[in-house]
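Schema walk-through. Below, the input block comes first and the output block second. Nothing else is stored per chain. Lengths vary across the set, and this one has 355 residues.
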Amino acid sequence: MARSRRLGRLFWKFFLVQWLSMALTMTGVGLYFHMSGLKPPPGNQLMLFGLVPVAPLIAVAFTMMASSLALAWYLSRPLWQLSWALGRVSAGHLDTRVAGRTGFRSNDVMDLADDFDRMARQLQVLTESRSVLLHDISHELRSPLTRLQVAIGLLKQQPLHLDQMLERIERESGRLDTLIEELLTWHRLEAGAAIPPASRVDVIELLHAIAEDAQFEALASGKTVVIDAPAEFVSEVHGELIYRGLENVIRNAVKFTYVGGQVEITARVSDDQAQWTCTVKDRGPGVPVGMLDTIFEPFARVAGSEGVQGVGLGLAICRRAMALHGGRIDAQLRPGGGLTFTMVLPRSSCVRAPS
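--- output ---
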């Protein structure tokens, strides 16, 4: 019914427009003969409609009807496909595409079909990513909760192991707290909600404070952290988010560096003082080349890293925080083993989060 109504509406609109055009043409011809005093060519008076012969008039009317119907079908057919595709997408079939169904055209309707396909692809990617994210979140929450339940059960069966079980419960509670805090930070960055206000911050001074804390933690596991970051770089940034991003990268490097290894932090300011570049190099196992970008996705895991403590959101938060300020972060394999993280931050380029 929707298709027939659309075809009918387009047909009558085209027919009316062409009929008005013909009526204006007839009126113009009549005015010409009237004002010039000329007479139309002689003909059979029974076959005239005013000054216009009936036979050509019938032929024109038939042509108008045929052309109106053809134009209506030509334009309504891709609209039918778009209507069908919208219905499919609204029903949850996000793999629906229409570009191949609208024929080989090069016009605004085809551009609209391409835009629809891009929208459907983006919706499909976002929906699939959200499904994977929810699955990962449930898995990350279930693991410490399961260990908590086991510890409580063992405590009930073996009260003499009170101190050991309490330590386990405290550790798992801390992991849950960290996970929830990381999830809240990730949600704020993604939704653009409750972003702390921007302020003037010396990013290099912030980096030194993070490196000092990381060195204190690294010494306990037989590792070292060195930093080479002279000068200063004062910029208008969301200090808490930049701190969390830098801290996540540096602590991640410390966690994956082998015992006895060294984490190297270097920061430089461009000659025109407009850009700050920081590199963090670790001496860990590295990652496969194909995962150099994947590690910045939420809950990304590299084979062999299951025993490393963490929730898998640190690098994702850092990339989002950098992007919020017009910056970027990427990773490369380091010669000799490990990774090199490069962060670039422009001066005073803080982007206001969407309300």
